[in-house]
Design goal:
Length: 232
């Protein structure tokens, strides 16, 4: 099953975190978590003996991710609005970063930027109501982990799979970019962004998001198994 979204419907960092605290009246616990955002190692020492536990692993991961996120947020100032100086290659990474850090530098800043970069089609669907747009995005993200907003705001990871394809060469006003996401529950989806350059005011020369097409559960954009009932 394929979906098309009209927007509504980093470098790896190594971090060491040391947390000390009392787990009980007489036990001192030292947790050391080392994260490369690919692997996390946790060791717990109680009374000189090394132990491992799921609860300790979970807490250490949360601590590490929070510190990484706080550090990244200090450098990221939000996606803002479309502007002619933004290259089409910059649009997808900028907006995906904004959605990952949705509440920075203010609440729902990422979704507000998505609205600003949205085409007239999206605005028509939501009758130019940004409040309904934001509410719809949150509802979709919370209910469907593999939806675009579920993967973008709550997912494990995303990465661009190819160079930007600019239709018609350097002077073309349509471009596509393919991205892969891993949802919070570990499922893969691929997305094709279609970007269009404004050829008249307002924001002449700025790039906007026309639509975002979804792959099926196997990451394919075209049906590979048509079944007996399919006819060309």
């Amino acid at each position: 099953m394929h979906s098309v979204y009209f927007l509504g419907v980093l470098s790896l960092v190594s971090t060491s975190v040391i947390v000390n605290g009392f787990l009980g009246p007489t036990f001192l616990s030292s947790k050391v978590a080392v994260s490369s955002r690919n692997t996390i190692e946790v060791r717990v020492y109680r009374s000189g003996k090394e132990e491992n536990g799921d609860e300790d692993l979970f807490l250490a991961i949360q601590d590490t991710r929070q510190e990484e996120n706080d550090s990244d947020c200090k450098m990221f100032q939000g996606a803002g609005k479309p502007r002619p100086e933004l290259k089409p290659e910059e649009i997808v990474p900028l907006l995906m970063t904004a959605l990952q850090k949705n509440d920075f530098p203010e609440e729902d800043a990422g979704l507000m930027s998505m609205w600003e970069f949205a085409s007239d089609t999206t605005r028509f669907i939501f009758k130019n109501n940004i409040t309904e747009f934001i509410e719809s995005c949150h509802e979709t993200a919370d209910e469907f982990p593999t939806s675009f907003y579920g993967a973008a705001m709550n997912g494990q990871s995303w990465n661009l799979e190819s160079e930007l394809n600019r239709v018609g060469g350097n002077d073309g006003w349509i471009a596509t970019h393919v991205m892969k996401t891993i949802s919070s529950d570990g499922r893969l989806r691929r997305w094709q962004w279609e970007l269009r350059k404004k050829r008249r005011p307002p924001c002449l020369g700025g790039w906007f998001v026309e639509l975002i097409g979804s792959s099926d559960r196997n990451g394919d954009f075209e049906a590979s198994d048509r079944g007996d009932g399919w006819s060309d």
